[in-house]
Amino acid sequence: MHDLSEKFATRLLKQSGGDDASAIRLLFELSLSRPASSEEQHQSAEYLAAVKADAMSRGTSESDARRESWQSLVRVVFRLNEFVYID
Amino acid sequence: MAKQMKEQNAQPGRRGFIRSMTASSLMLPGILSELLASNGHAAESAHPLAARPPHYPAKAKSVIFIFSNGGVSHMDTFDYKPKLFEADGKATGIGGGLSNQQRVLLKPLWQFRPGGQCGTLVSDLFPYLREQMDDICLIRSMNSNDNEHYNATLGIHTGSFFFSRPGIGAWVSYGLGTVNQNLPSFFVLAPQMPYAGTQIFNNDFLPAYHQGVRVIPGKEPIANLQPRTPSRDLQRMELGLAEAFNRKHQALRTTDKDLPARIQAFETAFSMQTEARDVFDLSGESAETHELYGLKPGQIDGFAWQCLVARRLVERGVRFVELVDGSSSHNWDQHGDMSEHAKHAKNIDQPIAGLLKDLKQRGMLEETLVVWTTEFGRTPGVDGTKDADTTAPAFHLG
């Protein structure tokens, strides 16, 4: 799960051309087969910013911090009940 | 309010960071409220596994339920039948199983001697437990309605011989909750699967919180206990956001009773990553304690390990611990050679007696009900060179 999250995060960033908002849209579409709600879009963006800021405050470079934040967000989505279980 | 939020955001470190998340538009998930309330009582009472008072006052707070697979022979262990010694080799029409053959009787292969001040007769199969008879309540009137191992095992755990029902541990968890919410309420220490498999610890129609968590003795008793997320703080944040998303998902599916339990499972798993590792680390146990159970220092499996870990779980407020002795394929079902009972007895005698002594000397026996049972006993008819099964005793210890 962790390894796949890293790969998926890399793919999302590449495919979205580095734009967080479109990468978030892509994340929800590819993993949950539905568009992200505006609230999810907003919360995800906030989450990315928070994790990135935290990593940078510990001396991580901006590009590494960004990658970490994306890997983290993908792990969140991969753990969702909506992703794990078929209702 | 805006000023207060700004101040919160300005707080350095983990708490400030968590606050900054909660102060923004994220919901306040259980993990965050738990962190910020520092285990406040209010947070606990809302927990689905919160301890509930019993209908009637009870002395016991925890149960250690020991299940021996295969049908332990009552008349070779705790149920002295003097006439059977006299009748050895005679045919009386007692069959094996459901048959009515003229089977030859086989006397117990072990001598009986009185144990403790009460003088209850116990065979030489259980020399250690025999010493503990003053602390043991022995029930000899147990009887099973089914002589199939699978069905009888299901029956003694669930009350149902044929249909899947919640196991006794799941019921106790459902009825009483648990004291320590950082650990599951119900653990099953099972090196191998018993008869009826996971059905004996399944929650079935009860909420999924009450399902037994299986522990497999060895290097990694619970899989994936070591977090792979780079830091504990980040893991906490990930679970916080996942819970916020999960709650929204659940709000549209209120009839699905498994969803809240799955959300809860992440919180329990999160706290287990610290608490559970500590439970399985026996390095702090003294040489005397190891000796009491017959456990070698550094040993990470075996029935003695199961017994010692059971004490450590109960000590930490776990409500129900089941110890599985044997499996559906290697067990007490001695059709071929009754003398094999000796090796099975030797495997559990000292560990169980050690557990009782240890609980007693720590003052825990007063509040811990230790139950030992099997699915049924055996008939005294020879089956080949041996002995077959039917009705059974169960033993209550503690």
Description:
The complex is a heterodimer of chains A (about 90) and B (about 400). In chain A, α1 (about 1-15) crosses α4 (about 60-80). Chain A is about 80% helix and about 0% strand. Chain A is built from 5 helices and no strands. The radius of gyration of chain A is 13 Å and the shape is globular. Chain A has about 90 residues and is an all-alpha fold. In chain B, α1 packs antiparallel against α2 (about 15-25) and α11 packs across α13. Chain B has helices spanning about 1-10, 15-25, 30-35, 40-45, 80-85, 125-130, 150-160, 170-175, 230-250, 260-280, 285-295, 305-315, 340-360, and strands at about 60-70, 110-115, 120-125, 135, 185-190, 215, 320-325, 370-375, 395. Chain B is globular and about 75 Å long. Chain B is an alpha/beta fold and about 400 residues long.
Largest sheet of chain A: none
Report the average pLDDT across residues of chain A: 92
Estimated helix fraction of chain A? over 70%
Helix content of chain B: 25-40%
Structural class call of chain A reads mainly alpha
Order of helices and strands of chain A: HHHHH
Poorly predicted segments of chain A? none
Helix count from the secondary structure assignment of chain B:
13
Instruction: Work out the number of β strands of chain A.
Output: 0
Distance between the termini of chain A: 21 Å
